[in-house]
Amino acid sequence: MRFAGHPQQIAFLRPMRYYFYIDKFAGLNKEEAPPMCPRTKEQNERIRMQRKEQILEVAARAYFRTGGSFDVRDVAREAELGYGTVYHYYPNRHLLIEDVLDSGFERSGQALEEWMDIYGDSTDGSPLLAYCQALLRLWQADARAYLVYKMAAEHYAGLPEKDRNAAKRRFREQLYNPLQAIARRDDDSIDHMLAVLVGCCGLHYYAGNSELDVDRIARLAMQAITKES
């Protein structure tokens, strides 16, 4: 069989190039990717914790938008994770909310302990103002910590009845009583102070894009204490 035309027009049939294309088609010339090293146990644990933190933070914010009626699928979609991945950690919404609150209690307790270490022996009002500011900054950065106080203001009505009293008791023992003792108040002025803080911070979460005026809100909250004096 003969081919018409100039030899350059049939250069693709030269033996070397012909066999190159055959090899490429067969995968013989494909560059091999370096083998992937399996992750260590520590790496797997770090990934697991990061993913869990991501799920908890998204779930806390979903709580504000839905009043606690969100679904695990909603969390998976917003966290940009597969439903099966989130379901592996939390097969239902109640377990997820339980862990959200548990994490929020831990973070709030740490903030209170740090403040007590610095200001616990002071007798004037400036440390309490500093605590209000620190609490607002914590809430602004951490939806879980804010949710603990917000639900406390609502007497944890969003929880199943069997869990409600335990959450109330934990809040009073771990967060409310220590704050009341340091503020040296045995009336309801701490309730008023926290109500101002919770209400103003709520605007930040429900508006979605507003920034907290931490200093101004903290001073407003302190008026609930000073006016009782």
Q: Explain this structure to me?
A:
The chain has 229 residues and is mostly helical. It contains 10 helices and no strands. The protein is globular, with a radius of gyration of 30 Å.
Write the layout of secondary structure elements.
Blueprint: H1 15-26, H2 41-66, H3 72-79, H4 83-89, H5 93-119, H6 126-141, H7 143-153, H8 161-183, H9 189-207, H10 214-226
Describe the sheet with the most strands: none
Structural class: mainly alpha
Radius of gyration: 30 Å
DSSP, total strands:
0
- How many helices? The count is 10
Mean pLDDT: 79
Question: What is the helix fraction of residues, given as a range?
Answer: over 70%
List the main descriptive attributes of the protein structure presented here.
229 residues, mainly alpha
Short note summarizing the structure:
This protein is mainly alpha-helical. It contains ten helices and no strands.
